[in-house]
Write a structure and sequence with these properties.
Rossmann fold, five-stranded parallel beta sheet, two-stranded antiparallel ribbon, 18 helices, about 55% helix, disordered N terminus, 9 strands, about 475 residues, alpha/beta, elongated
Length: about 475
């Protein structure tokens, strides 16, 4: 029995030395020693009897266990309950160390050390951000400078100059708002070129919105974007183009609306000009069309726009329609009689005429009532002339020739209908030829201009007058060729 006790002690000492030599985790060492002691800590199997009254004790006392490196303060119960948990932790740690390969070790080593190239990059990055911060502060101070009477006469006020925080902030905000106006104001003060001379000038200008007036666009998952033409839009544009200078003014960007306008008028015969969102005003998130920049008198200008915000600057010039959502209707065609009558009459200002209608959305119905009233008055006048004409009876003029058979408005409509039919047939036969000639002239004009990047930067883009002069010169060349 003493031999077994001595062998257990030696085994524990050897285990502790081996674990210390091989640098095993303290948890594993502790677990191995406690486990060995728990297994080999032997006691006498003799039971205490009342005869001898002696209690058998182990040879491994506390002093010997302390020399072996064991914690003698732990209870035997703790060493039997905790070895599983401690052993699992030791195994997990050993598995983690086994998973670490050379690549992971080099990666950690690289993260801990920085090369000279990395240090340079970090230094340049810091230098860049500090420079950006300094430049921003310098630009803010520059925008807060005093007003200059020569450079900024429209903003100059002597009492606003000074370098107090309030005045500097006020000047800063004013200049920043001036920069933002570049994106919220039209790029040009005249959106259209000057009108042609009187013999070729239309009496009135009609500005029509594209979206929800002439066309309607919708999107679904199966077919994507689809654009539908309003019923009668081709007839509307073609018929009124003989009376009006038609301008399609879209609130959409040029990138989205230009293709649609080209399909509406492929031969460039009906639509005189097209404008887009880029020349609109933007205020409080609302898109507004300023008709005062159209380079046309407002008393000769009519706009058709269903969006109230777009017509908010000149509502007296606008004919309001309900937004078209792609359904069948005739509201656009129903406006033709009124617009035709307005263009064929000597009207000095269209605004009082539009204001005479109580509800501008019901102009076709109300105009039909007024037209019928005029027709009745005209018929009664003609009957009176036919029956009571002393001079006609004296001269012997028959009653049939004393009055007009048709109302002047009907004569105008018949002439307009014939002109439209002739124009339609002509475009049907010669449309493609006209389109090719126009493309060739455009190429020749661009070749004559010899635009270069240097010219655009130094002289700017050609103005409308320059383009008109070039077109006139090209027309003279064509006339000379025809004569030859």
């Amino acid at each position: 029995m003493s031999f077994l006790l001595k062998s257990s002690a030696l085994t524990a000492l050897r285990a502790s030395r081996a674990l210390t030599t091989h640098r095993v985790l303290p948890i594993a060492c502790k677990y191995a020693l406690n486990h060995s002691v728990a297994q080999h800590r032997l006691y006498s199997d003799k039971k205490d009897t009342a005869e001898d009254g002696k209690k058998y004790q182990s040879v491994l006392n506390d002093d010997l266990l302390e020399k072996a490196g064991l914690n003698t303060e732990e209870k035997v119960e703790d060493t039997t309950q905790k070895p599983k948990e401690e052993g699992e932790k030791a195994k997990e740690h050993l598995e983690d160390e086994a998973e670490d390969d050379e690549f992971s070790k080099t990666k950690r080593r690289r993260n801990n050390t920085k090369s000279t190239l990395d240090k340079k990059k970090e230094r340049y990055a810091r230098l860049f951000w500090w420079s950006a911060l300094g430049g921003t502060l310098a630009f803010g101070v520059y925008l807060s400078r005093d007003w200059d009477e020569k450079e900024e006469p429209e903003f100059y006020k002597a009492e606003e100059n000074g370098y107090t925080p309030g005045k500097m902030l006020k000047r800063f905000r004013r200049r920043v708002s001036g920069v933002s106006e570049v994106f919220s104001e039209p790029a040009f003060n005249e959106l259209l070129p000057p009108p042609p001379p009187d013999p070729y000038r239309h009496p009135l200008t009609l500005v029509v919105e594209l979206d929800d007036t002439l066309v309607h666009s919708s999107w679904d998952r199966k077919k994507g974007w689809r654009t539908a033409k309003r019923p009668g839009v081709d007839y509307f544009l073609g018929y009124l183009s003989q009376y009006y200078e038609i301008v399609v003014f879209s609130k959409s960007s040029m990138a989205f609306a230009e293709g649609t306008i080209t399909k509406l008028d492929p031969y460039h015969a009906f639509i005189s000009y097209s404008l887009y969102r880029e020349v609109c005003r933007v205020k409080d998130g609302k898109i507004m069309k300023d008709l005062s920049l159209m380079n046309r008198p407002l008393n000769k200008l009519i706009m058709i726009d269903p969006h109230g915000d777009c017509a908010s600057l000149q509502p007296e010039n606008n004919i309001t329609l309900d937004e078209w959502k792609g359904t069948k209707d005739d509201r656009l065609v129903a406006l033709i009689p009124f617009l035709e009558y307005l263009a064929t009459q000597p009207v000095k200002d269209v605004r009082p005429v539009l204001a005479s209608f109580k509800d501008k959305k019901k102009i076709p119905e109300e105009f039909a009532v007024r037209e019928q009233r005029l027709r009745d008055e005209w018929n009664s006048e003609q009957k009176a002339r036919q029956s009571n004409s002393f001079l006609a009876n004296l001269l012997g003029i028959p009653p049939v020739l004393r009055y007009q058979k048709k109302m002047p408005l009907e004569v105008i409509r018949e002439a307009g209908q014939k002109n439209y039919e002739n124009m339609y047939n002509y475009l049907k036969e010669n449309g493609e030829k006209m389109l090719k000639e126009e493309q060739e002239k455009t190429k020749e004009m661009l070749a004559d201009q010899k635009l270069t990047l240097g010219k655009i930067v130094t002289e700017g883009m050609p103005t409308a007058e320059d383009i008109a002069k070039q077109q006139a010169a090209a027309a003279e060349k064509d006339a000379q060729k025809v004569q030859q």
